[in-house]
Each structure stands twice: as C-alpha cells, then as structure tokens.
Design a protein that fits this description.
This protein is an alpha/beta fold. It has a single domain (6-278), classed as Rossmann fold. The protein contains ten helices and eleven strands. The chain has helices at 21-43, 56-68, 96-103, 127-140, 167-171, 182-187, 189-192, 207-211, 226-234, 273-278; strands spanning 6-10, 13-18, 46-50, 77-81, 83-86, 115-116, 146-149, 176-179, 201-204, 216-220, 253-258. The strands form two sheets. The chain has an eight-stranded mixed β-sheet with strand order 1-2-11-10-7-3-4-6, with helices on both faces. The protein has a three-stranded antiparallel β-sheet with strand order 5-9-8. Strand 3, helix 2 (56-68) and strand 4 (77-81) form a beta-alpha-beta unit. Helix 1 packs across helix 2. The longest helix is centred in the N-terminal third of the chain and has 23 residues, at 21-43. 44% of the residues are buried.
C-alpha cells in the first residue's frame, strides 16, 4: 500500500514528511537512484555529493539492496563526500572514508578512483590547495547532479558551522578547513569516546559548491533535529543557521523528513500528487 507524504512548499522549497525514518530514508535513496538514471541518460555519468552520519546509513543500506537486486548500478557514478575530520587516517574506523567504505563503496560497483573523500592526512601547509583542488575536480566532472545533506542540531550542513558572516559572505564559502562547533563535537562524542576526544577540526565542502548542485536532498529524522529544521525552513536566511542558506536556491531543494523531525513545523499540509507519484513504491 502506498503511504503518501504530507507535503508543502515553504520558502519555495519542497517538503515531504513521511511516517517514520525508515520510509524517509528509502525515499531519499530512491531520489538518488532517479538522479543517477537521469544523469546517465543525459551525459552517460552521474556525479553525486554524499553525506555521512547516522541518518544516511539507512539510505546507503537501501542503495546496496537495490544494487544487489539489479535496481541500480554505480559503474557510471562519481562521488564526492561532504567532509572529513582533520587530521585523521583513512583507515581509522572513525574517519568518513572508512564510514563510506563500510556502508557503500565496498558493497557496490563504484570504481575506487571515482569515490572522492577529502584527505585527512595531507600536510597542513597544503590543506588550502587540497580544498581548492576538490572544488575544481567537481567542476571538471560537470558539477554535482545531486547533493545529499543532513542537518546538525545547530543547523550545520556538511561541517559548515554557524558563524557571524553576512549572508553574502556565507554563500561564497569554498571548501576549506574549519573548527568544529561545540554542539557538533558533543554530538560526535559517542564515536570518539567523549566530547573531549573528538577531533576539533574538519575539512568541509563549502556552501558555494553545495548550492551549485543541480538538485539538493536534505534528510532529517528524529525529534532532536526538529528545532533546526523549523528554523531553516521558516526563519530568515542567516549564516548563524547554515541550513537556512538553502533558501537561496529554493527551487532545487527537497526536504525529506520523518514526523518527529517535522514536529516544529506548522502550516497547511496537503498530499501533493506529483510528490506521491515520484516516490511511488518507496514506502513499500
């Protein structure tokens, strides 16, 4: 039985609210598959921006299941990950390179030289050069067809943390090395054995290359994300809440939420037929 989402558009962005996190993650995964197919048909390859964290794990599990049953191939896919701790070894199980290897790269037919994650081992004197090169690689590959995002409790996307920059300055931010916000470090404490053990810096794809993607899917599940989701969707654009900057490219952004993550939103909800048809079967 199809389970249609509650849907609306807010600040020009499409918002879908699904009954639970499992369905929401399958829907996000199916949007990625649709993007792969469309890009292959147009240019014979797809370029994906990928996220990490606990929420996307279900997305990658769905993609792996679809790959194993013939529903998708990654032979013509190129990937760029959002972020990586710095400094960190790629074989450290807490690294995002290791995360992606566990959850996706090692389980599908993605060529190793097409799976790009920022390098947490580069000497610090060369970090700026690495970051600039990462942005150039994305451009050389034709830009991102789809960027998958999560949202931090403080509203960060990637590791673009809250700041006092103007909106214009924030929109121009490139890929770079950043200091992690205390909330971000607290949320990573379980993985590192305590907040004081969390690596304090990270490499992150910038706001500018994120917003340049042809489509953006932002996925949020769970009540702890509700406040940030509501602020990003209903508040003004501000660098103090980086996810709110998605309003600047509203027409290409789709929010995929479960009911707890959407609990801070109020408004006239409706079943939007186009949304239901696009993800028909994802809720099975």
């Amino acid at each position: 039985m199809d389970v249609p989402p509650r849907s609306l558009r807010h600040a020009g962005m499409a918002v879908q609210v699904w009954p639970d996190a499992e369905i929401a993650c399958r829907v996000a995964g199916d949007l990625i598959i649709t993007s792969i197919r469309a890009a292959e048909a147009q240019r014979r390859r797809a370029v994906l921006g990928l996220a990490t964290g606990s929420t996307p794990e279900r997305v990658y599990a769905h993609l792996v299941r679809q790959y194993r049953t013939g529903g998708v191939s990654f032979r013509n896919v190129i990937t760029y990950n959002l972020d990586e701790y710095y400094p960190i070894s790629p074989v450290d199980p807490r690294s995002y390179r290791a995360y992606m290897h566990r959850h996706l790269f090692s389980q599908v037919d993605l060529e190793p030289n097409r799976a790009h994650v920022l390098d947490g081992t580069v000497p610090e004197a060369f970090v700026a050069g690495l970051a600039a090169a990462f942005d150039r690689w994305i451009e050389a590959d034709g830009g991102l067809d789809l960027q998958l995002l999560g949202i931090g409790r403080n509203g960060h996307i990637g590791f673009n943390e809250p700041s006092d920059l103007t909106v214009a300055e924030a929109l121009r931010l490139p890929t770079r090395l950043v200091e992690l916000h205390p909330t971000t470090r607290a949320d990573a404490a379980r993985d590192f054995g305590g907040a004081d053990q969390v690596i304090a810096r990270a490499l992150t794809l910038g706001i500018a290359p994120i917003l340049a993607a042809r489509s953006i899917v932002i996925l949020a599940t769970g009540a702890p994300k509700a406040e940030a989701v509501a602020a990003a969707l209903t508040g003004p654009m501000t660098a103090a809440l980086p996810a709110s900057l998605l309003q600047s490219v509203a027409g290409k952004v789709t929010w995929i939420l479960d009911e707890p993550a959407a609990s801070g939103l109020n408004g006239p909800w409706s079943v939007v037929r186009g949304d239901q048809d696009r993800v028909r079967g994802a809720a099975h």
